[in-house]
Fold:
Amino acid sequence: MAEKPPIGVIGAGWVGLVTATCFAELGHPVVVREIVQGKVDSLSRGELVMHEPGLQELLTKNLDHMTFTTDMGELLQRTRLMFVCVDTPPTYSGDADLSRVETVVQEVGDSNDHALIMKSTVPVGTGAAIRRRKHDLAYVSCPEFLKEGTAVEDFMHPDRVVIGADNGDWAGAAVEELYRPLGGEIVRTDIASAEMIKLASNAFLATKISFINEIANVCEEVGADVTEVARGMGLDNRIGPKFLAAGIGYGGSCFPKDVTALKQLAGNSGYHFQLLNAVIEVNELQKRRVIGKLKKHLGDNLVHKKIALLGLSFKPNTDDMREASSLVLSARLAGEGAEVTAYDPVAAERAGELLPGVEICDDPLTALSGADAAVVVTEWPQFKELDWNAVRDAMKTPLVIDGRNVLDAETLTAAGFAYEGVGRPSAGVPAEAFDAAPAAAG
Ligand code: UDX
Structure:
């Protein structure tokens, strides 16, 4: 079998590590340049510095042909194709901070034998600007569509691989060859369109989530069940069933950042992208609606009420707390004078420094003990398996706000709980207790 070309990866963050490890799994020698010496040291020992299912096993298996270094020179010497996986966080203005990308471009210099393959999410026009300055440097926009918690699967079985390159650029064909074994649609396009595909895809998914969250909020007023509505909507193949799960808002390192970056890009280009303003506002308000649900059952005064948060990470199967709904919710509860306890299967350590004043417990029952209410913030599967009779005996008030509609309302009602989901006004409420929807006007 022909020797697989060595792959360079710049940045050992979540995207960089998944990219590097998966290419190593595909048989490529991989050189990863990371500026934090501590991360280089632990990764060189095969110790993963983050939680991503399946990644540690792949790192251990492929370590013999993976090199981690702080030296860009080693990367330039040993690889031609260099995936740029540095972070592009939002600045205070909401624009993407491209300083780390800029540093990489400077460090690569004027090589005419290397290609920068941009995995980092950047504003449309970034590639063109780099090409104008670095005529000899090949450039490919190859955005990632990995979801935390399923990143290895997403890499190995992509729906599509987007490759933006100038016509005739050798690197576009080289990147296409790298991804061909994985299957999935190869989308060869221009650089600007590739950059926009990434931003537009994430913004659309976030829009879908804010849309179903608003539908859920209307369902609460008119007596419909949003999980049933989503089921009926999702069977339309123009809509699809995914990303129609109503809850207490989206978080993570991508959706909030990319939606804002697209809004800013549009604004900076002279277009007011009104829809995205609404998507962002709906998402922020959705995280706060839990307070109203708590007050509905506990009264307006939450001072000294003990609220137990089940789940802290922005989604299950990750310890990532970036833009997690738990951050906004715990701050709002503190503002109401409530006492907050919490449990999360893996994010507890990261959450500690992010949630001052929150008592983070080692197990759910301790967090729930003496609580006036429990709030499911992250849909970790283990919460479905809790012994709800034991939970009821431990809590002061048997009230559960299910922020992700992940629990079985009937089970909780049978165990003596008041259950409140999102967009599910009749779930968990005995039929006779639920007021019918307001009589149709007429
Ligand atoms: C997202 C995109 O899915 C991925 O393509 C991109 O590369 C990176 O950003 P990620 O942020 O890892 O991936 O997780 P995702 O599964 O998309 O969930 C993002 C947020 O949306 C989470 O907070 C999740 O709870 C929320 N969500 C998701 C909903 O509220 N409802 C849904 O139906 C789906």
Residues 431-442 have pLDDT under 50 and may be disordered. The chain has two domains: 7-189, 196-442. Residues 144-148, 202, 205, 209, 243-245, 247, 250-252, 254-255, 314-315 surround uridine-5'-diphosphate-xylopyranose (CB under 6 Å).
